[in-house]
Design a protein that fits this description.
The complex is a heterodimer of chains A (524) and B (255). Chain A has 524 residues and is α/β, with parallel strands linked by helices. Chain A contains 22 helices and 10 strands. Chain B has a domain at 1-76 and 184-255: P-loop containing nucleotide triphosphate hydrolases (Rossmann fold), CATH 3.40.50.300. Classes of the chains: A alpha/beta (524), B alpha/beta (255). Chains A and B meet through helix 5 and helix 6 of A and helix 2 and helix 3 of B.
């Protein structure tokens, strides 16, 4: 199923490169600057105090042991709890600052501690005060080691910044996350090569600076410093113009981290801009809870979620109402009253969690429904995406059917369909609209005890859209009932297996929408 | 010139220096001798407050040493370290110029003084732009002495300055230091464990034993009337060396 993208997709990818590279540069340079400004003074204090050294190095070491993806994700609820905008540049910036501290701090402490005591005593002996000794002797002598620490931090930060995508900060990680989900190898490669090139470039500049400093070559030192200064000015101005201009008149559409969401976000954005002319931007690959918080906090204006997801993860409800429409009604009231979020449209299809098996395997076992699976489950293995086994739906499934599998495996949602197809796992927690259910000839098992709530795809809109852009809201409302399950599955397959970009698929959908009249009787 | 009263320093339970008192008149060189751990380096470092004393006082040129901030005090006292301690990231000229620079001398005055000192210590002028690592051990210590002399200090402190040098270099440097000191009329305190060096360079010798100053007198007096058995034993080594040497020389002369 993996494919190399076609020419138009590649062009589309490269069109984004200047913006993403600049965003990535800003996401590297500013955390590093703050990291340097924190770590070097802290390192100097540590060199004077044993207990502070222990404290600071251990704390920085602990931060380092937190996987960088988790550190970035942790910033979102942390900032949220403080009531600060928790999506986008800020959480990524803070996590990357923390991440850059250790190598710089450690090298500053090591550099200062490793100085020959004969030389530091001589500095006092010739009549320097503490400040003069630090600035004229200790720091210059420790500088090569400190700069080496900064270079290490630079390479780490460039790498970790690719993980800023799920918290809503644009970076070269956008290529990697989206590419992995849509099995677009070219996109993944563009992201990797560009971030590697950025890391090498910045490290090379650091090397020039180090050479200038150690050989007391002023020309070299100033050249490197000027180059860094220019990069900072460039990244800073890009950041400033984005902060000043973007949020005022651009409508931001969010997307979670899977193909269907990439397509739907492009449909939403396309629908708004073609009917109202407002500029839209798509914030891709947001974590599933991040995207809801982003809407509630006003960092994005609209996205597509699923009624069952809101029902169980936001409203924390476990019982399943008999009527699909009843759930949507309750959800609508809840979101509007509790969060000020509007349910603008029901797109018309459902993307439910569903247990699926390879057709031949299901026939061999004679399984059609989940209740028929329950007695066989101790001999079978099940796989699901990272979220699934922690979600309330899984608990209610196991409770309703008494499921007890031999083994359960979490894996990336882009790989799990292959896994069940190849027989690595017997049962899969699939998404009912995934094109690969048809493509790989899988069967969906009937949820005969109704343990899983319905998952109507709904367009959610934040307060700002209703207040400032009622026409955009109106444009989104017109998508009501316009996407059937069959069509969604076809579009997903087109991207996942056909090498078409989500954007092109969305544009194709919208142009067809214009020529077809709305389906009757589809109200949100 | 310098007057020391009851200077005391303890590290934990050990009294490194115990109530040391002495005076050094202007132009005189006092050598502090004693075995390792006798407290001679600790005593020297208390004179310019590289180590702060627990008790006692130091007066230099009629002023108490703790009347000014320690770094100001040290700018007026030359200090030569056993391990030289040249700044490796500065050129030889910058090393020599450091104390005048800290005192805010003009650029011209500094350049003139550096040239003067390079000549005085027989250092080639081309060395000025080199880094310490490019110099031999003897040359490095000459730079160390030049750095200590740079701001025309009223007092020089030397901590085993020739200890790490090979015998020939050490002898040459001792000779040039002795003549330099006579030329400049310099007041100095020299710490050494080498009795012969103390005899050769010092006007008076102070002997330290376990932190106590047991005798302070001219070399001749110490040789003639050692105050304690310890002092006598210390003097025994150079005495025996001299006897052996004399005997050998006599033998050579007869043949």
């Amino acid at each position: 199923m993996t494919h190399f993208a076609t020419g138009s997709v590649v062009r589309e990818e490269f069109a984004l490169l200047p913006h993403l590279l600049t965003a990535h540069l800003a996401l590297t340079l500013f955390p590093l600057l703050v990291g340097v400004c924190l770590s070097i003074p802290l390192g100097i204090l540590c060199a004077r105090s044993q207990w502070l050294e222990h404290l600071a190095l251990n704390a920085a070491g602990i931060v380092q042991t937190v996987p960088s993806l988790a550190l970035l994700a942790l910033m979102v609820p942390l900032l949220g709890a403080l009531g600060i905008t928790s999506i986008g540049f800020l959480p990524a910036f803070l996590a990357l600052v923390l991440y850059s501290v250790l190598p710089i701090l450690r090298n500053t402490v090591t550099g200062l501690a490793g100085l020959d005591p004969a030389i530091t005593e001589a500095a006092l002996g010739v009549g320097m005060n503490a400040r003069q000794r630090l600035l004229r002797v200790e720091l210059p002598l420790a500088l090569p080691i400190i700069v080496a620490g900064v270079r290490t931090a630079t390479v780490w930060t460039v790498g970790a910044a690719t993980l800023a995508t799920p918290v809503g900060a644009d970076s070269l990680g956008n290529y990697i996350f989206a590419g992995l989900q849509t099995r677009n190898v070219a996109s993944v490669l563009v992201g990797c090569v560009a971030s590697a090139a950025l890391a090498l470039g910045l490290d090379g500049l650091g090397r020039v600076l180090l050479a200038g400093v150690t050989r007391s070559n002023r020309g070299l030192t100033w050249t490197a410093l000027a180059a860094f200064g220019a990069l900072y000015l460039y990244a800073g101005s890009a950041l400033a113009s984005r902060a000043a201009g973007a949020r005022n008149d651009t409508i931001a559409i969010g997307a979670k981290t899977f193909t269907e969401q990439y397509i739907l976000s492009q449909i939403l954005a396309g629908q708004i801009s073609r009917t109202t002319g407002y500029p839209c931007e798509v914030k891709q690959s947001l974590g599933s809870s991040v995207v809801f918080d982003a809407l509630a906090g006003g960092s994005i204006d609209a996205y597509v979620d699923y009624s069952g997801t809101i029902w169980s993860t936001v409203m924390k409800r476990t019982e399943v109402p008999a009527e699909r429409a009843d759930l949507v009604r309750q959800m609508k009231t809840f979101l509007l009253e509790q969060r000020g979020i509007q349910v603008v449209a029901r797109l018309g299809f459902e993307n439910s969690y569903a247990l699926a098996m390879r057709r031949s395997r299901a026939q061999e076992l004679g399984v059609h429904s989940i209740s028929e699976l329950s007695s066989l489950s101790p001999h079978l293995t099940i796989g699901g995406d990272y979220e699934f086994f922690g979600r309330p739906e899984w608990k209610s499934l196991t409770a309703a059917y008494g499921l007890k599998f031999q083994a359960q495996t979490s894996m990336d949602s882009s790989l799990m369909y292959q896994a069940v197809h190849q027989g690595v796992i017997d049962v899969l927690s699939a998404f009912s609209t995934d094109g690969r259910i048809v493509a790989l000839d899988l069967v969906v098992l009937d949820d005969d005890r109704r343990a899983i709530p319905p998952y109507d795809a709904v367009v959610l809109a934040g307060k700002r859209l209703a207040r400032e852009h009622p026409r955009a809201l109106e444009a989104l409302r017109r998508l009501s009932g316009r996407i059937g399950a069959q069509q969604m599955r076809a579009m997903n397959l087109e991207v996942d297996a056909g090498g078409v970009s989500p954007r092109a698929t969305a544009q194709h959908f919208l142009s067809e929408l214009m020529s077809n009249p709305p389906m009757p009787g589809a109200a949100p | 010139m310098i007057e020391v009263r009851g200077l005391t320093k303890a590290f934990g339970a050990v009294r490194a220096v115990d109530a040391a008192s002495f005076e050094v008149p202007a132009g005189e060189l006092l050598a502090l001798v004693g075995g390792s751990g006798s407290g001679k380096t600790t005593l020297l470092k208390m004179l310019n407050r590289l180590i702060e004393p627990d008790a006692g006082s130091v007066w230099i040129a009629g002023r108490p040493a703790n009347a000014v901030p320690d770094h100001v005090l040290r700018r007026n006292i030359g200090y030569v370290f056993q391990k030289v301690g040249l700044f490796p990231h500065m050129t030889v000229a910058e090393n020599v110029a450091i104390t005048p620079f800290l005192l805010g001398w003009s650029r011209e005055a500094i350049a003139e003084r550096v040239a003067e000192l390079m000549a005085l210590l027989e250092l080639d002028r081309s060395f000025g732009h080199r880094y310490p690592a490019e110099l031999s051990g003897g040359q490095q210590q000459r730079v160390g002495v030049a750095r200590a002399l740079a701001a025309r200090p009223e007092l020089m402190l030397l901590d085993e300055p020739f200890g790490a040098l090979d015998p020939i270099t050490r002898d040459r440097l001792q000779q040039s230091f002795a003549s330099l000191r006579r030329k400049l009329g310099m007041t100095a305190i020299l710490v050494t464990h080498d009795m012969a060096e103390a005899m050769l360079l010092a006007d008076r010798i102070g002997v330290l034993q376990a932190g106590r100053l047991v005798q302070i007198a001219t070399p001749r007096e110490i040789l003639a009337h050692p105050a304690t058995e310890y002092v006598e034993r210390l003097m025994e080594t150079p005495r025996r060396q001299a006897r052996v040497f004399d005997a050998l020389c006599d033998g050579v002369g007869r043949a």
